[in-house]
Description:
heterodimer, A: mainly alpha, Cytochrome Bc1 Complex, Chain D, domain 2, two-stranded antiparallel sheet, 5 helices, 2 strands, about 50% helix, B: alpha/beta, Purple Acid Phosphatase, chain A, domain 2, six-stranded mixed sheet, 9 helices
Amino acid sequence: xxKKLLVVAGAAILVAAAMSGLGVRADEFTKExxxxxxxxxxxxxxKGRELWTSADLGTNGVACAQCHPNAAxxxxxTYPKFQQQLGxxxxxxxxINWCIQQPLEGQPLGLDDAKMVAIEAYVAxxxxxxxxxxxxx
Amino acid sequence: MIKxxxxxxxxxxxxxxxxxVSTLPLSLVELAFADPAQxxxxxxxxxxxxxxxxxxxxxxNWDRGLIRAVAETNLLRPRPDFVMFGGDLAQLGTKEELDHxxxxxxxxxxxxxxxxxxxxxxLDLGEYWSKLYxxxxxxxxxxxxxxxxxNSILTYDEWTFDRWPTAEQRMLEMAGLDNPNGSPFxxxxxxxxxxxxxxxxxxxxTPLVVFxxxxxxxxxxGWNFWTEDAEEVQAILAPFARTSVIYGHVHQIxxxxxxxxxxxxVMATAWPWPYPQSYAQAEHHxxxxxxxxxxxxxxxxxxxxxxxxxxxxxxxxxxxxxLYNNTNRRVAYNPVTGQPEDSAYQDPARQIxxxxxx
Lengths: 137, 358
């Protein structure tokens, strides 16, 4: 084994030792981790609530909350489902875009847009506790 | 004093008259008396939420609802004696919105009576609305019936006068139905005193019809399907043998019976609202009597909006709900059971899947 290779191998062992010293393991997390992740999640739900009550998603001043107070009557637990008005199986995000385009007279969001994720997070949060019912009309 | 024929025949006659004109979708109240010359009807339109965008632009969808209601009311035969507007003409109470809505209502070829809604009130505390429609609460008599119009959307003085830096913010805070910064509606002590005094001279056998914007009963506080002093107002109405309370605000079919008082809601011309039970976190008290209207289909812009025929054949109301994209509903006071009932769907065995809100 050359001297050079030995140096590389030695460095790798040192890095591994340093990492294990930091306590990073795939299957372990702390109370502090959970609190931080919860906070990240809650901030996105809060962003979704702000968008839900905002006139900025559309062009005519109408907000989602005008027809759907507390995101009621949105049935997130049923998606994806056969959306009979579209004649195919659709996702909740597509239906959110439908509302942005029709009653709000706005432009659709990208399905992975951070705003879309926030809106979906808020809708699901208001529906917490309800059993999953995929496909239910 | 008019004598009222309380027989079933007279009641059914009233119902028949309502059915004959129900080919047009609108609120019509028919009051049938022993003397047919005294019979009359009135129309009912509510919750139009005319919303200003900017300049001369208003939200098209809400405009279309009110335009349709007015046009169809004008086609009604027999011609209603007057039309009620049940409140929330505007969305944010501005002069532009109230003027635009009033212009549409001015096309009605009937005398118009108006109820104050919170969306009309919380920008300037009803000042501009008053210039258009007068007193915030009042009463009148018409062909033997005593009508009372209440302003039921008042709230605590501290919330109204001291909490918000601007009138615009106060209006926005109250306009959000599910806004936790809102405040419960109430009639208030001053108006309750006025009501008691107004009713002092009215014979207890006189049919009484009370119009309010919010329900004078407690259904779900989170969305103000609620009036904080409902019990106090009900106590003032209790001595009257035949009392009906008709309210807007909820944008859906509701009905209930509390003592002698029959409660009926009317639909909005703008958009429908979910029933409180469809909000999974809500603790609500939707009257057990109420068979919900069908779940709204947003792909039909006017679905679950509209207005209704009402007849008051025995001094109790019967409402024919004209549902633009569904089968019509009829909710009538049943003198046998002493409560309002749906003529087709009251029996749980006859209820249909689209009435299930989840």
